[in-house]
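FAQ: What does the model actually see?

It sees only this:
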Amino acid sequence: MDKENDGKVVGEGIESKTVPDKTSEAAVKTKNTSAKSTIGNRDTNQNLKNVKLEDLEDDENEESLQQDLAKSSDEIEEEITNLIATGHMFKAHMIAKKAFQKHPENVNIAQAYSLVLLKTGALEESRKLLYPILGVSPVLDEATGEEMITVESLLASPFLQTGRPDVIANIGHIFKESWKYSHHCRDLELAKELYLSSFKRDQKTSTGMNAAWLAWLTGDDEQAKQLAAAVLKLLPPYGLEANFPELIDLAEAQLLLGREEEACKLYEEAMKSKDKINYILIVAARQQLYFLREAGFKVPNAALDILVPPTIVVFTGHSIDHPSFQVSLFPPDIEEDVKRIIKEKLQAINAKIGYSSASCGADILFIEALQELGGEVNIVLPFAIQDFIENNVRHAGPRWEKRFERALSNAHSVTFSCEDRYLGHDMLYRFSNHVMHGSAVMRGKFLTTDPHLMAVWHSRTDSLPGGPADFIDRWSNISTLHLIDLDELYNENGIPDQIDTNLIKPQKTSLSFDPFVSKSPERVIKSMMFSDLHGYSKLQDEHVPSFLDFLEKLNQAMEKINTELDSLNTWGDAIFAVADTATKIADFGLRYCDIIESLGKKYPEFPFPIRARISLHSGPVFVAQDPFIKKVNFYGGHINRAARLEPVTAVGQVYATQQFVSLLHGETSDERNEYVQKGLKYYERYSTEYVGVIALAKSFGQQEVYHLRWR
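And it is asked to produce this:
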């Protein structure tokens, strides 16, 4: 089935922005890997102007967007498809929305936009874009309460005879994807008929196998086998002179016919050309097997072992020695040796995707090595870029500043885990590590693989917050850990067996900190929840007794939630909760939402059921005693960010920021590894689905947002 686009999608990153000229000449930007487009329609004679679409906020990088929109419609469509295939939904939605507004009559852009809307959860809007293309009007489905087209009306449509086969197949793909979200059998039947119609006319292995698998999913085993046999007749035995996608189609045809050995031979033949193809195609073929296994088809493990996905590497490492260090850890004269070893280790594990900061020294050496190998580099900076350059780059001299700028300019993406000032708080490095880890885990789920950690460290140093040893200590899966010990490369006589961290801390008196930094309160990483009750402000005086009873029952139910919170405050109908982990807040928020949904229906005297809006966020906050209430409280911009998300959250839903979701995936990955090491089965508790970029309340900016649900 459409190999380039199958699989779950994750968001692009945290608050991607262009670095202002006053801080660096490097352009912070996002690039795309190339993949064969699967939306190939070129017709432009359909009028789609009357389709109503939900407005989402535009990206701030207008100049980059205009450059994308200046491309031809074919190039725009291909870029959108590539972004979807690589899991970069934020930019895909941004470009698709603007392109459709600019070219509403262009059918291939409409199809691309339809697919983006589908991936971001706008199921009905996605379908609406397709009805004018098909020339079929929807009718109300009494079973679902939704407007949908029928199989009979589709089969009667002249479009199946007059439309281009590739266009028909592309629409079939969208209905197939729609079925994954809606679970409506009608979507599955529509997809099958569209692929069948396309295959009868184009005789392509891809459309034939899509039709075959859809026939199998709808219970027609005989038709599925007939189609698989027809696909095998399209090419010579064992796919001589076939390309990678065709070999995968032939392998799947053999699988459907129960010939596992023949299928594995074809998978092996396809992988012989892996260096000449985009890794996205390998991942898509692998995702297809996982999909079929989940649907109940017997997929041999041998096939999955052949389709090896690219390795994702999270990197951490020491910087070049600061002039104020009293003991040398990373002298400049060993940088070439370090880079050589990094490159060798990356090649050994087939690393193609990397996540790293960009400090002078090991970070930049890793970035350069992976880029030289043709890999994708995603840079995550821990705080404001001016402070980062001052504290992590400048001390090594102008040469490293230029390399820093070049690294950012050539990176696939540059994001910030936190855009606030550093203010001397090293825990911001730790928070950035958490975000990098979680982002890599999310990407790994999309690519059906687990991330690795590579560290350039010194074995005789203690653990500093956010440093290499700290990251290593927190990495739960030692089988994916790769260490490069600087002590083995550089061992100066007289260095003690254990190096005092005070000897390798930059002297803050030598750095340009603001005068108020020394007065700064403690800063910690916290996850937080804001919630209010929708409809509370509309209640009248006669509803107060019932509402007080509602609150009492709510409190009784909440007391049964054994989540360990650091703080829980209420203001009328609003709740603010803080905890030290994302999983604690996720559990608390989802249970709270469930209780409100259940309890709110039990008071018919209210004008409408009481429901909750819940927002979740993670970030560095200040902790201090409130001078008025004499209790510990939390302060800072990230508290405000969590609060500003709540008013724009959909009623009855739980929305979470990218930062929160990254930490949540990192924490659950550690839990899963712990269970595996103990020989226990781990069950995923949460589902995170990308919503889009939402404008926060009170002009607080924009935020990438995910929908959090129980799995």
